[in-house]
Structure formats: C-alpha cells, structure tokens
Specification:
Largest sheet: 2 strands, antiparallel
Strand content: under 5%
Number of strands: 2
Length: 95
C-alpha cells in the first residue's frame, strides 16, 4: 500500500489539495489502481494488435455538401449591434 509520504508527494506533484480526512481513503484507492496497473503489466500482449477503439467506428455524420447560406441581412437582423456586415461584439477591455 502507498504510504502517507508517497501520497502527499504525488498530491503535490499533481497539485491536489487533500484534506487530512481524505488521506487514508485516497491512499487505499491509489494503491488499488496501482495494483491493477501491475496486473495489466503482467499480461502477455505480444500478439494483440494495437487499437484505438474496440469496435467498428464509422462516421455517422452526413456528407458535406455545398448549400445556399442565409443572406447577411437575415443573419444579422436579430443582432443588437452590427458593423461591416458582421456582429459587433464589445471589447473585453471595454473599449
């Protein structure tokens, strides 16, 4: 099991603020995760093909096609402010 000093070191590296009452449970959870990683490292995966997804991934989006856009006047009609055929947005500096 990971000890308190190791946990505090990892928490500091990860910039995690752990409260005193979280230390025991977090150490136990992290130890369990590390045990699973160790078990995975023992598996013989030499004949396993690398994959990005376990299932067939196909594109479910429609094909791109050229279509007529909204006229500029229609798109800008509900805008509170317009300039040079575009939406006028206030500057973050308030200028």
């Amino acid at each position: 099991m990971i000890d308190r000093d190791e946990l505090l070191h990892v928490a500091r590296l990860a910039r995690l603020a752990l409260h005193e009452d979280e230390l025991d449970s977090t150490a136990a959870e992290l130890s369990t995760i590390l045990e699973h990683v160790a078990a995975i490292k023992e598996l013989d995966l030499d004949d396993v093909e690398p994959t990005a997804h376990i299932g067939d991934v196909s594109d479910s989006l429609r094909d791109d096609s050229v279509a007529t856009s909204l006229p500029v006047e229609v798109a800008l009609a509900p805008a509170p402010a317009v300039r040079d055929d575009g939406f006028l947005v206030p500057s973050p500096q308030g200028e």
